[in-house]
Amino acid sequence: MRDLVVLKVGGSVLTDKNKSSTARPEQIARVAREIHEGLSGGLVLIHGAGSFGHHQAKEYGLKNGLNEKSIKGIWPTHYAVKSLNNMIIEALAKNGVNALPVHPLSACTLKDGRIDSMCTDVIELMLDANVVPVLHGDAVLDREKGIDILSGDQLVVYLARELRAKKVGIGTNVDGVYDVKEFNVIREITPGNIESVRGMLSGSSGVDVTGGMYGKIMELMELANAGIPSQVFNAEKEGNIARFLNGGVCEGTSIRGE
Ligand SMILES: Nc1ncnc2c1ncn2[C@@H]1O[C@H](COP(=O)(O)OP(=O)(O)OP(=O)(O)O)[C@@H](O)[C@H]1O
Ligand SMILES: C=C(C)CCOP(=O)(O)O
C-alpha cells in the first residue's frame, strides 16, 4: 500500500480571482517547483478554478441547474479550467514531474451536487506508474439538477476516502482559518468547536460559486468524521508546499475528528 498524499492548491493562489481568466504564472511556476522539491511518494494533485471557472460559472448560472442559459456555459467553464490545468501540468513537466490530467466533466457524475460516481481506476493506474494525476473543480453533469459545479474541495474529500490517503492538505491564500474577531489562526477544528467556528467562516474575497472557506471546512469536517484529518495552510508562502509534502512543520489549521 502506497503512502498517498492528496493536496489541493487553491485557485486563489494560482490565479487572480478578481479578473476573469487571469493566471499568476510566477505562482504556478513556484508551486510546480515546490511539488518537485517535496515529492516523495504518491500524490494526487487537485487545483481550484480561481478566475478560470468561477467567473464563467457565475455568468451562466451553472449552479442553478440545466436550462437554456446554463447549457451554453458548460463548455466555456470547462474550457477555462482545462486551460489552467494545462498550465499546471506544463509547469510540472518543466520541473521533471510526470503529471497527467483527469477532467471531472468526463470522469464523474453528480447527484444533487454531490459526487455520485467517479472513474478512479485511471487515477490508480497513474499512481502505479508514478505519475501525478492532476484534477480540478469543474462543471459536471448532475442526475437531479442536470448540471452543477463540483468544487476541488469536494474532490479532495471523495478521493482521500476512496484512495485511503495518508495525508490531506489544502493550500490557499490565507494562513489558515481565522478567528474573525481576533484575526488569529484557529489551530484546530474538531467536532467540539465546529459550531462556534461555523459563524466565523464565510465565502471568498474573490468571485467564487463554491462557498470559499465555509465550503472548504464543511467538506473537511466530513472527512475528519470519516477518520481522515487534514490541514489548511498558506500555499502562497514560499516553502509551505514543499514542507507539507516532505513532512516538515507547516503551520495552519488542522481539521480532525474526536
Ligand atoms: N474565517 C476565515 N478565515 C480565513 N479565510 C476566510 C474565512 N472566511 C472566509 N475566508 C475567505 O476564504 C478565502 C479562501 O477560500 P477560496 O475558496 O477563495 O480559496 P481557494 O480554495 O484558494 O480558491 P478556489 O475555490 O478558487 O480554489 C480566503 O481568501 C478568505 O477571503
Ligand atoms: C468553478 C469551477 C469550474 C470549479 C470550482 O472549483 P473550486 O475552485 O475548487 O471551488
From TrEMBL:
The record, for Pfam families, names: AA_kinase
| Taxonomy, superkingdom | Archaea
Does the keyword field hold Transferase? yes
Aspartate/glutamate/uridylate kinase domain residues: 4-234
For the biological process aspect of GO, one term held by this record is: terpenoid biosynthetic process
Give EC number(s), comma-separated: 2.7.4.26
Q: Which InterPro entries match?
A: AceGlu_kinase-like_sf, Asp/Glu/Uridylate_kinase, Fosfomycin_R_FomA-type, Glu/AcGlu_kinase
Q: Report the CDD domains cross-referenced here.
A: AAK_FomA-like
Extract the PANTHER family matched here.
GLUTAMATE 5-KINASE, ISOPENTENYL PHOSPHATE KINASE
Q: What does this protein do?
A: Catalyzes the formation of isopentenyl diphosphate (IPP), the building block of all isoprenoids.
The family note in this entry says: Belongs to the isopentenyl phosphate kinase family.
What is the protein named? Isopentenyl phosphate kinase
Organism source for this protein?
Answer: Methanooceanicella nereidis
